[in-house]
Specification:
A hairpin with a 5-residue loop joins strand 5 and strand 6. It is built from five helices and six strands; from the N terminus they run E-H-E-E-H-E-H-E-E-H-H. Helix content is 42%, strand content 15%. A six-stranded mixed β-sheet has the order 3-2-1-4-5-6, sandwiched between helices. Belongs to the UPF0178 family.
Amino acid sequence: MLTVLIDADGCPVVDCTLRICRSLQVPVLILCDTAHQIQRDDAQTLVFDKGADSVDFALVNRVRPGDIVITQDYGLASMCLARRARVLNQNGLEYTADNIDLLLDRRWQNKRLLRAGKHPKGPAKRTKEQDAEFARVFEALVRECIPSAE
C-alpha cells in the first residue's frame, strides 16, 4: 500500500499534503525531531532525537518502493530514490535519477561558499503560487501511484 512520508522538519506543505492524502485515502507518516514536533489528526507522527540526520535515517529505514517522500533535503532524496521511492520537494519538483546529481553538486558548492565566508542568498518568502503548484503536482503524483483496483 502506498504511504506518503513527510520529512517535516521545516516543511511548509504538511497541511496541504495531509488534505490531499485525506481526500484520496492515502496514509501519511510525519517524521520530525524534538525541535519540530508536528502532530496532526490525519497522520501518524514519529518524533526522533535532535541530531545529525536522525530523522533522515529513520525515514529511509521506513520507505518502501513506490512510496512518496516529501523533503527539501537532497541527500535524503538521493537515499529515497535508491530505495525506489518517488520524491518531491516543497515546490513540486520531483527528484529523479536525471537531476539528483546536479542538485547534490549544487548543495556541495553552496557548502563550500559558506565555509569560505560567502553567504548565498536565502530563499524568498513562500508564495500562494508555490503552494498551488505543489498541490497540483503532488495530487497528480499520488493519483498515478495509487494502485488501481482490478
